Amino acid sequence: MTMNHSAWHAGLIILLLCLTGCPGSVYLWEVRTESTRKPPEFSVAMLKHERVGILEALTSPGLHGNEVGLALSLKRVVERVSPTMVLVPPLEAASRINRAGLTPEYTRMRMDYEQSNILDRDPLKKVGQALGVRYVLQPRLAAFTQTLYDRWKVPALEINVIRIRSSILRLSLQIWDTETGDLVWASTAEGSFQEEALTEDPVYLREAGRITWGSIVSDFARDRTSSRYSPTNNLVDSLIGPDEIDEEPPNEPTGTPAAPAKK
User: What is the SS3 assignment for 179?
Assistant: First the structure.
């Protein structure tokens, strides 16, 4: 009885120390990339003078739903890593495609792409004309898994003090020339993410996606064909964190008049 009582007290002390002294969460991540070489006639500098369209992300049937939002995440990363590039964002791209009456052809092109990994030249050219761009970015979600396991627990209290949330994310990105139908550049990346925390929040796909896209776009900007990224890369690591969360301003109380503008 005394031993159980002592173990309970020891466990409680350790738990309190973790609650007060340990950080709420710690991200450990690593991304490895494989990218193609750019053809001689194509360079990063060219895209500084071209509007570039971003198409909605694609994925396999088993992952449908997880790809939503990845194209928007890619847009925000490109704006951070390569701010000189002029983009046609996915929302605007979808609207232009629909206004041009290309939705049936665009849908067939995407369905064929899932089988062939090729964007058919004729509908691709029409999409490029509708967007007013020569080049489009085609993102794709290849895999996303999450696991949760205990790293350390207090047996006397039956409390999980620290839990590890681990995720694997595989993304790919292709750049297509809508005028010629050429695939001018492609990259794949696999990211491993781990987080230690006292809560049971997941490793969010939004944050893992930004880091993985940042690694791919960094390869493109630096003309690299194989890279390993980790939190020591300040630019990529900065894509995750509180500073990336857009906070909405508080609502004004009903009936409160706005302050007059200063003259």
Answer: coil
The number of CA neighbours under 13 Å toward the Cβ of 61 is 2
pLDDT at 146: 80
Tokens 């509908």, residue? 123
DSSP 44: G
| Cβ(229)–Cβ(215) below 8 Å | yes
Least Cα distance to 74 among 226, 214, 193 occurs for: 214
Query: CA angle at residue 12 from 8 to 18, to 5 degrees?
Result: 145
How confident is the model over 63-89, as a mean pLDDT? Answer: 90
- pLDDT, mean over the chain: 79
Q: Which residue has the higher pLDDT, 45 or 168?
A: 168
CA distance 128 to 7: 68
Q: Look at residues 209, 178, 201, 161 and name the one whose alpha carbon lies nearest to residue 29.
A: 209
Q: What is the per-residue pLDDT for 254?
A: 42
Helices vs strands, H then E, count in the chain: 7, 8
Residues for the chain: how many in total? 263
Distances (CA, A) of 159 to 22, 155, 162, 197: 16, 7, 9, 13
Distance from the Cα of residue 83 to its chain's centroid: 17
Cβ neighbours, 10 Å, residue 63: 14
**pLDDT digits over 19-30, tens only?**
333 433 446 889
CA angle 121, 124, 128 (to 5 degrees): 135
Please report which helix (H) or strand (E) contains residue 236, including its range. Answer: helix 234-237
The yes-or-no verdict on residue 2 having pLDDT over 60 is no
**How far, in Å, are 12, 18, 46, 237, 245 from residue 138 at the CA level?**
52, 44, 18, 23, 25
